[in-house]
Amino acid sequence: MRSMILFFILPAIALVALGCDESFSPKQEFEEQYVLQCFISVYGSGVNPATVTAVLARTYDVNGVDPTINTNDPGIAGAEISVVVNQKLYYLQGAQRVSPDTSRYRNRQWIYTKTVPAVVGDAAVSLTARLPNGKTLSARTTIPGGRNFTSNYDFVGGLYPRVNPQPGKPNWTISWDNYSDVDVHLFVPRLTIAYTKLVQGVEIPGRVTVPSQYVSSPGGTIAIYPSLSTQKQCSFDFAALDSAMAQISAGDSDKIKFGVHSAKLEVIEYDLALSKYFSSINGSLDQFSIRTDESVYSNVGGGIGILGSSMTHWWEFPFDERYVRLYGYRYR
Hints:
The strands form 4 sheets. Strands 1, 2, 5, 6, 11, 12, 16, 18 and 19 form a 9-stranded mixed beta sheet that branches. A 5-stranded antiparallel beta sheet has the order 4-3-7-8-17, with no helix packed on it. It folds into 2 domains: about 120 residues, Sandwich (Immunoglobulin-like); about 140 residues, no CATH class. The chain contains 4 helices and 19 strands. The chain is mostly beta strands.
């Protein structure tokens, strides 16, 4: 990245800094490397299946400095990839999916995938990839463990923002701290409301996402949603929850067609490897540091890339029936 940035700056300063030195090149000498990206996704902190998806590729060179002119897919097929999860061995199967870049490469991308039937939090994972040319890549990580949620409000009869608001607590705050934590992980929280709409006798499911708050701007009101951070809590204005409830039937006067029961908080937790990886490409893990010129984090031996895992924790909050009926909805 430094070479490319320097390339665009140089024309303006070439006469001053370099004179007529024609030996300068913005490209480094090409060295072929193998790249592995493998992500393990687990939904729920109990004993649950995990989805494992891996992509293998090789670095490539081009004439000139524009990498987008390459039209040869760098993906690698025919490799043998295995993962060991808590001392149990699983082989990934080769498959194809729609390519994320159809502008340069073919419409299908070669991937390796497997569903591991039973995974628990804190499970140790190791991966070995044997390429067709005999090259071997390896990596290790640990799946995040379980977490306990706490709320600053105790909704005894169900979620009802308008009942007994507490002085000094205008927001609903949900925490998932674990005081035994040693590593710094990244979290992505999302609060949604599931509903159904009765259409010709059939209940059609739907879902709306609840913003943290609404803020005023010169262009109007903007919804702000929770984002990727190291914080182990998130807060929601009760007014934002009210607005999300109203949005379910926006533009439809027949409110009784809509059925609502609960809200659901999902928190995706990235393991240490993925947290470091996203930090290296998006910024530092803390809010006070500025990333200047870090290299992209890699935990792959024999090549570059990432083996990372995520755990989606969730907590369901049934609504108080009175709150649902305030909007004219059915309580399901």
